[in-house]
Design goal:
Layout lengths: L6 H5 L2 H31 L9 H59 L5 H18 L3
């Protein structure tokens, strides 16, 4: 065991020695961690080597994840385009179905008219013309 260097060490006994030992351990751990981090940084910027292969494995994993995310993004874009097309198709089909239903209803009214019912014929004609002028492109 080493001797106490000054009177203060002698007074507080082993407490100072223990604090120095613990302090030395902490300094060694910091130094080791700093060297490892420094090595990782050097490898990351392409200067140092990766002896353990750990960084290469991490890079490969991240590249694989990135590729999978890109593939999912592409699939989502395709699904979104298909969904938008389906929505547009649905709204256009609804508009067409409504127009066909309106025409069918007007034909039924037309065929139910009697030959002498001029007032009903005029009303139907006005309704047809109003529908036609409202749906015509301007």
């Amino acid at each position: 065991m080493r001797q106490f260097e000054d009177a203060e060490d002698a007074e507080d006994g082993g407490a100072s020695v223990i604090s120095r030992v613990v302090g030395g351990l902490v300094d060694n751990i910091k130094e080791h961690a700093s060297e490892e981090a420094y090595g990782w940084i050097l490898h990351f910027v392409g200067i140092g080597g990766d002896e353990s292969g750990e960084l290469s494995a991490i890079e490969n994993t991240l590249e694989t994840i990135e590729a999978k995310i890109d593939a999912l993004s592409t699939q989502l874009q395709s699904a979104e385009a298909a969904l938008m097309l389906a929505i547009q198709w649905g709204s256009q089909t609804t508009a067409i179905a409504q127009s066909v239903s309106g025409i069918d209803f007007k034909f039924k009214q037309l065929f139910q008219l009697s030959k002498n019912d001029q007032a009903a014929a005029t009303t139907l004609q006005t309704a047809i013309l109003d529908d036609t002028s409202a749906s015509a492109p301007h």
